[in-house]
């Protein structure tokens, strides 16, 4: 899947979880969980929504690889067969 | 006939504003049905009904402010015919309130309605305590007028001093408003107008005020003691990781439900911590675990998970998935806000190592979970590094002492070493 489409999905879902922050303005290379202030519950909801939207499985073991928006988008591009 | 009264959703709540009725006269209600939506400091609360019967009459109008304890609706229970019911005054003479004067147009009632019907009094299972001693109080209470019980003296005082009766909390019999209540309201009003006018409160301001009121009261009234224990979390984390590799993402577990279950089981072992203090210790038979949810706008709200000890970890996770989004949207149910028997606070990842909470009255304990940190530990005489969580127990020293708290932490530590058995 196209990285731009993936990024758009990420931003939409982040905005749903944290409507008070505009995810589009977040630096792509910072830890977005810390930047937005997501706790473990929010993060699990986000990962679940992302998995369902893009039809991919994101194992817990990979959580450490996807801490920034850029790295998350690249990870998902690979997973969705780009 | 049963009066459904405005419930209290916590020690700091005094009134709510009715925003929507979810039932109308003639509807059948059973235990757990949502009867109305009320707005209070904690957002829009779905008020649940705990009676079974048919709605006879709605007593409150939309957007009306309703003090806790005020009758909101009448419910006819099984076995009663609709029609007259009687309320006695303090002097014991039955008087007919005006609410049953006209029968509903399509109600299946007999065409005539008895006006004075003393014998009906014994047929109602849930009438409130009606004092029978004549000449008991100097002020006589008269039957409800617009849903308020108030003596003529108090009513006159209120009118002369421009006191809004809907905002006064009655401390007399059956929630009646007394002269003392009006005097207090006058004092409060004078104090309020003396301070500078403040801008209109926002949602998070009112939450903050509610928290402030509860925490201040706790600090004033409850002599806290604190105990702390460092707990090796390796077993729990390993178990969790293994569970989650085998589960699709929608069924993954967080550490939180594991902690809740372990704490609930530890409370079964030390039941005096699952209690309320009201001039004496009252043990609670069920464990309803209040857990602190932080709100994105600032502030906290504390919904309860009912029967936490009876739910599996999966069921606890499902409960959290249901409750947390509603808590953050400030759309909880009345039982979720009022039923906690103990409170759990967790600062989680990136938070402080230890959290010493403040007990929410009238509960007698608060359990705090710090972040999981890599810390040195001694196992078999060797120095090792283990993922460690500092767990604290704040206790009300009127209700329990250090021994109880200590037993609790010891039990909790033990349960967390065997997560597969939770």
Quick tags:
heterodimer, A: 82 residues, mainly alpha, globular, B: 422 residues, 8 helices
How is this structure best described in words?
The complex is a heterodimer of chains A (82) and B (422). Chain A is mostly helical. Chain A is 56% helix and 0% strand. The model of chain A has no long low-confidence stretch (mean pLDDT 92). Helix content of chain B is 25%, strand content 25%. In chain B, the strands form 6 sheets. A 6-stranded mixed β-sheet of chain B has the order 11-21-20-19-14-17. A 5-stranded mixed β-sheet of chain B has the order 7-2-4-5-18. In chain B, helix 5 (255-269) packs across helix 6. Chain B is globular and about 80 Å long. The A-B interface holds A 18-20, 34, 37, 39-41, 44-45, 47-48, 51-52, 57-61 and B 241, 244-245, 248-250, 252, 254-256, 294, 296-297, 320, 324-325, 348-350.
Task: Indicate the low-confidence ranges of chain B by residue numbers.
Answer: 83-145, 195-200
Q: Describe the global form of chain A.
A: globular
The number of strands of chain B is 21
Mean pLDDT rating of chain B:
82
Spatial strand sequence of the major β-sheet of chain B: 11-21-20-19-14-17
Structural Rg of chain B: 25 Å
Topology, please?
The complex is a heterodimer of chains A (82) and B (422).
Chain A: H1 3-17, H2 32-36, H3 40-54, H4 69-79
Chain B: E1 2-5, E2 15-21, E3 28-29, E4 34-40, E5 43-48, E6 53-58, E7 65-67, E8 71-76, E9 87-88, E10 94-95, H1 152-160, H2 179-194, H3 203-221, E11 224-232, H4 234-245, H5 255-269, E12 275-277, E13 281-283, E14 289-291, E15 293-294, E16 300-301, E17 304-305, H6 313-328, E18 331-333, H7 334-338, E19 342-346, E20 365-379, E21 382-396, H8 402-416
Parallel strand pairs in B: 5-18, 14-19, 19-20
Antiparallel strand pairs in B: 1-8, 2-4, 2-7, 3-6, 4-5, 6-8, 9-10, 11-21, 12-13, 14-17, 15-16, 20-21
Helix pairs in contact in B: 1-2, 5-6, 5-8
